[in-house]
Amino acid sequence: MGNNDFGNINSMGNLSYMNFSDGNGIILATFGTTSSNSAGIYLNLTEKPKQISFQFNNDMMKTFSLGNYKDYYINVSGQTFVIASDVSPAVNGNNMSFSSAGLIYVVIFNDQSLMNEMNIYDHYANGFRFHYNSATGNVSGRYASFNFYKDNGTISSFYDNISQMTVFNNITMKGNGNLPSIMITQSPIVGNMFYYGNSTYAFAVHDNPALQSSFVINNGTMTINVSSSLTMINKTYMVNFGGMQSAVMNGNILNATMGFNQQIRAGTTFVYLNGTDFYGMLNIQGGEVSISGHEITIKTNGTAIISFVAPPGLQKIYRGFGAMQYAMDRGKLGLQMSIENVNSTITNYTVYLNNSINAIVKSAQNGKVVININSSEPTGTVVAIFVSNSVIKNTTAMSVKFDSSFAIKTTAADLVNETSTTTAYYNVTSTENGSVIMIYIPHFSDHVLEIEPYTAPVSYNIYY
Fold first, then answer.
1. Structurally, how many domains does the chain consist of?
2. pTM for the whole structure
3. Domain around 429
């Protein structure tokens, strides 16, 4: 965090506190001078705090922590608040106490990304789960199945259960790397996500309709053999990386590369996989990429990040939609997002082509989608959003608001060539399962996009 992320330091007795500048959090701190004069911070909450943890196949609890000890969270009016500290708390009902002879800090904050993490945990704990046979290496799920042999770092027969076809014949990973210890696990983690990591490579495969998969390899080689039934198209783009490589080695690997938050940050190389009933995207950042026939090889002396996604919504964006490819080829497309209702839960998959951009779906209910979007760069861009019929019923009569003002409807061809710095434009294209909304954002700071069915204004005639 930068210096501008925080407000002024204030004091109240022996308690110091500082708010986040955006109003979404507060830091509490105090200090005890001796063991007999220890200090404490005591919280009386509106509900009993829950531990942020993940249950794995061996029924052991593993906790990912922001502070030195286990973190907790509470839900208040639909908002998630995380409580982290450098002191292990005592929890009794709705009360938390933090005591120490030295410095104590407690951080309490509300952040949409943490809300997303709680949703991911809920999907992990309660959603469809992979079944793993450690003897045979078979991993079977509702949407995806494959074999994994950790002894030689091979994934084979990666199968899409929806399209009923093999996507990858095999994927091999080998080398002599030095990935962070947080990525390494001695046995695969099995839930609705299958995860494995050693010092050279790590990967995560989600059992969801998008077949979302992420891989990272350090000082090694990864070979991907694509099914011969798929057509491969290779594209190279200039992409703003937005600090992704540093995130790999500084401990932010879990979200930055493994796609735990159902977001994918683009690399410079995209490989599109196209079949009769299938459309997927591999994107690669880092390393030397070579393609021969249906075999893709990534070699790196550093770290390479490889992501794969094939959500039904993003398939509809590409199939037969030339304006989208035109914008991507010319670096005018900032992100693609697919918003769908999966297992009665609103789920969004995002592919970022400009890694300076961040977008969060704030709400998708009552026939309306609200998205917060920002960028560290001021230049405008085009975003493409697929909204499933299960979220908003399919209609070309959509309206889009940009910071509470109506955007202007235009053709897709005109939109991708727009250069205005003041006016937002949009285009709607209907597909079989939803609508693709392309939006031209004229400039960047923090913005709010609202998408909902168009309602014609009501007019009244008064006769005298």
1. 3
2. 0.59
3. 315-453
